[in-house]
Amino acid sequence: MTEKLLQYIWQFQYFNHALLTTVDNEILQINTPGILNTNQGPDFLNANIKVGNTTWAGNIELHLKSSGWISHQHSKDKNYSNIILHVVWQDDGAAELSFPVLELQNRVSKFLLGRYDELMNTTAFIPCEKNIKQVNGLTWKSWIDRLLAERLQHKSTIIFKHLAANNNHWEETFWWLLASNFGIKVNSDAFEKIARSLPVNLLTKHKNQIHQLEALLFGQAGLLQNNFTETYPLMLQKEYRFYKSKYKLQPIQAPLFFLRMRPANFPSVRLAQLAMLINRSLHLFSVLREAETLKEIKDLLNVTANDYWHYHYVFDEATAFKEKHLGTQMINNILINTIIPIVFAYGLYNKEEGYKEKAMQWLEQTAAEKNNITNAYSLLGIQNKNAFNSQALIQLKNEYCNRKRCLECAVGNSLLKKL
Asked: Nearest-CA neighbor of 156 among 285, 298, 338?
């Protein structure tokens, strides 16, 4: 037994109420079990019970053993001055209290306890892997909606921290997030540092000259320090030296990784594509914020690196011709991880539901992510038809299944409730 499970049992009243009595054999009736308190103080607030012929209103405290009241020194805490019932798993007779005590260990289904133990001790992909198909569609639908909202709110919190760091400059915040996304996981931190070192207002001055944008990005990335032989990198090197002096720039002190990476994801290729995106559109955040359709955003992101990169993945090493399109998979990645979250965050920040609803709709219109998590859920028969589903499933796996938060999960609740 754990305190969390005891709270769960009390919250949903999953115990036998027949001939309910306190440990002193007084007849007990639970009118309202109270509201779970997530802050300091008693476990449940605003409860209502009847003991014998007297009705009491107040708070309820839970412990695994009665002696918990003493060990936690609640008698000295004014937050516990209005306790009307002490609910315990086992009454060890160690506390003499002025209010009644209810013991639950002989009133809870052994099947429920067994199922909970099974969930907590399994090594499967998810705790409820064997029983998940028993959960009805309505429960799944409402839970998926809530999981997605949680994930977007969590991402919004990160965005708000960026805003706080740049005086609520949405364009600058978007630029940091976008650059980080272009770096994919392995180079995301370095790409964000590059973005922070090149403010939007500086890039705006050079947006019409693709070679100047590349010089600034590659130079700050530390990729223009070699002794080149080809004309193009030599030209970028010269440009960067001039602007480095003019703007007093300092290259970032973070490595960029190329090893064990598909050439299409090389940081050099992604920086070239990022430069082209800046070249194509001014005030990117304003454009995407006011976009009405997902197609408008996809068209904006559908960029190809300049001609030099058709024959290169890195400087000074020519390859066979291949246009360096951003690609559908990367476009969807940027939509899911940067554009949709910041549109949602903008709506949340400004209390404008229209932006939040648009973000949700765009997720439903975006292809589902295919990764180890979503593939494993699909094998269990869980639907993953779009990015709305896949983002919710990632949230479920990372925040609930991995942490065994079955008691806080609608799926876990549904399975335990069936017993």
From this structure: 338
Sign of CA dihedral 115, 119, 123, 124: positive
- Judgement on whether residues 58 and 193 belong to the same structural domain of the protein: no
Q: What is the largest CA-CA distance in the chain?
A: 95
- Please give the tally of structural domains in the chain: 2
Q: Are residues 98 and 198 in the same domain?
A: no
Tell me the CA end-to-end span of the chain in Å, nearest whole number: 17
CA distance 10 to 221: 57
Q: Is residue 41 part of a domain?
A: yes
Cβ(306)–Cβ(338) below 8 Å: no
Q: What is the tens place of the pLDDT at every residue in 40-81? A: 899 999 999 999 999 999 999 999 999 998 888 888 888 898
Q: Can you tell me the distance from the alpha carbon of 204 to that of 278, in angstroms, rounded to the nearest whole number?
A: 8
Residue whose pair of structure tokens reads 């539901």 in the numeric block? 353
- Stated as kind and residue range, the H or E segment containing 70 is helix 68-71
> Residue 4: is it exposed, middle or buried by C-beta count within 10 angstroms (0-12/13-18/19+)?
middle
The domain containing residue 322 runs over which residues? 169-326
**How does DSSP assign 306-355, residue by residue?**
-GGGGGEEETTEE-S----B--HHHHHHHIIIIIHHHHHHHHHHHT-HHH
* Whether the predicted pLDDT of 418 surpasses 70: no
Can you tell me the distance from the alpha carbon of 115 to that of 415, in angstroms, rounded to the nearest whole number? 9
Does residue 124 lie within any of the structural domains? no
Mean pLDDT of 87-94: 89
Tell me the pairing of strands 83-90 and 101-103: parallel
CA 377/CA 143 separation, integer angstroms: 15
**Residue 390 counted as domain residue:** no
CA dihedral (328, 333, 336, 341) in degrees, to 10, reads -130
Q: Do 174 and 317 have their domain in common?
A: yes
Average pLDDT over residues 134-149: 93
- The amino acid present at 53, given as its one-letter code, is N
Residues 418 and 411: their CA atoms lie apart, in Å, by 11
Residue 385: DSSP 8-state: -
